[in-house]
């Protein structure tokens, strides 16, 4: 792949994905070429994405909003405190029993 831009690499990935989706039967003769080009295009996209992500982190950190970019390795923690807990939700049986009153048969 001679073009090293994200847009061109992403276009290659889209083209190959569409080709594979549209095939009624896999064309084994083209498969190695498709996979090789797709891997090279993916690597270009990944490098460009990593560079942009790092630049955004630096820019946001210097602006004082470093926490705005979530870490890819640590998912945000979600805790449910008793004050935030919903009121007692109706159970399935109580909901079904309530529906029985509206059924005419």
Assembly state: single chain
Find the structural class using helix and strand composition: mainly alpha
Shape descriptor reads elongated
Q: Roughly how much helix do the residues carry, as a percent range?
A: 55-70%
Give the SSE string.
HHH
Main sheet makeup: none
Which value, in Å, is the CA radius of gyration? 26 Å
Query: Could you tell me the mean pLDDT?
Result: 75
> What fraction strand?
under 5%
User: What's the tally of helices?
Assistant: 3
The first-to-last residue Cα distance is: 69 Å
In the predicted model, the low-confidence regions spanning at least 5 consecutive residues are 78-100
Written overview of the protein:
The protein is mostly helical. It has a domain of 72 residues. Helix content is 58%, strand content 0%. It has 3 helices and no strands. Helix 1 packs antiparallel against helix 2. The protein is elongated. About 22% of the residues have low confidence.
Q: What is shown here, in short?
A:
This protein has about 100 residues and is mostly helical. It has helices at about 5-20, 30-60, 90-100.
Give a topology summary.
Layout: H1 6-22, H2 28-62, H3 92-100
Label this structure with key terms.
mainly alpha, 105 residues, 58% helix
């Amino acid at each position: 792949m001679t073009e090293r831009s994200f847009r061109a690499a992403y276009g290659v990935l889209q083209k190959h994905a569409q080709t594979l989706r549209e095939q009624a039967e896999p064309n084994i003769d083209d498969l190695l070429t498709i996979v090789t080009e797709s891997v090279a295009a993916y690597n270009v996209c990944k490098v460009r994405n990593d560079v942009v992500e790092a630049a955004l982190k630096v820019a946001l950190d210097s602006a004082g909003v470093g926490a705005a970019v979530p870490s890819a390795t640590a998912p945000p923690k979600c805790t449910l405190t008793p004050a935030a807990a919903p009121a007692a939700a109706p159970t399935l049986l109580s909901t079904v029993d309530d529906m029985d009153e509206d059924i005419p048969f």
